[in-house]
Write a structure and sequence with these properties.
With 238 residues, the chain is of the alpha+beta class. It is 47% helix and 24% strand. The protein has nine helices and eight strands. Strands 1-2-3-4 form a four-stranded antiparallel sheet. It has a four-stranded mixed sheet with strand order 5-6-8-7. β1 and β2 form a beta hairpin. It is elongated. The relative contact order is 0.10.
């Protein structure tokens, strides 16, 4: 009889607690595999929560555009055979006047790209843009045997540039530009020559500040009236 009373006592407690009993049974079911409905529902919610968290991490983005320009595979002959490595060249930009490039080396391609991207983010430069779509003036850049020429262009021209240089202007946010590269097709030298030309870019606003004048004073030297110069000065945005 003592054993029967011991068994019946939890049943009486479960009947009195009502809804709490269902939760208790659900917990016992999850532990022993008896109540699959309660356990399965909680486990499903748990998996969904983890999946949602992972998706949230993937959606985090700071608006930086990343473009892979070139991957080079190199090999080193050692005693046991050949040891391969990879070098990646990456260009990054925010599409609003900031751009940078970097390169990284590793045994695997994803790791090399990660290193190059991190290096590019650390070396981003600011380039003034005319109307947010093109350069303010023409420019020349050089690095090693590579020489590039950059020319401003009217609206609708598009990006007329080679592969490595196109990646730079797309990341920079330039929509209209005409370029020419002479002397080398090495993507590293082309990128460095392009950045050499971009660092020489100036805007009327910066020139006016450096000379202690107004932007309208600089724009009015070409024979334009004072009203036209003021309108053009107001329209200029870096």
């Amino acid at each position: 009889m003592a054993d029967e009373n011991t068994i019946e006592t939890p049943d009486v407690a479960v009947v009195e607690t009502g809804g709490d009993a269902g939760e208790a049974q659900g917990r016992r079911g999850r532990g022993r595999g008896g109540n699959r409905e309660g356990g399965g529902g909680d486990r499903g919610r748990g998996r969904g929560g983890r999946d949602n968290n992972r998706g949230g991490k993937q959606e985090e983005d700071d608006g930086i555009i990343e473009k892979l320009v070139h991957i080079n595979r190199v090999s080193k002959t050692v005693k046991g055979g050949k040891r391969f490595g990879f070098a990646a060249l990456v260009v990054v930009g925010d599409g609003q006047g900031r751009v940078g490039f970097g390169h990284g080396k590793a045994r695997e391609v994803p790791e090399a790209i990660t290193k190059a991207t991190a290096a590019a983010r650390k070396k981003m430069i600011r380039v003034p843009l005319k109307e947010g779509r093109t350069l303010h003036h023409d420019g020349n850049g050089r690095f090693g045997a590579g020489k590039v020429t950059l020319r401003t262009a009217p609206a609708g021209t598009g990006i007329i540039a080679g592969g490595p240089m196109r990646a730079v202007f797309e990341s920079l946010g330039v929509a209209d530009v005409v370029t020419k590269s002479v002397g080398t097709s090495n993507p590293y030298n082309m990128i460095r020559a392009t950045f050499d030309a971009l660092t020489e870019q100036t805007s009327p606003k910066s020139v006016a500040q450096r000379r202690g004048k107004k932007v309208a004073d600089l724009l009015g030297r070409g024979g334009a009236s004072a009203a036209e110069a003021e309108a053009d000065a107001a329209a200029i945005a870096e």
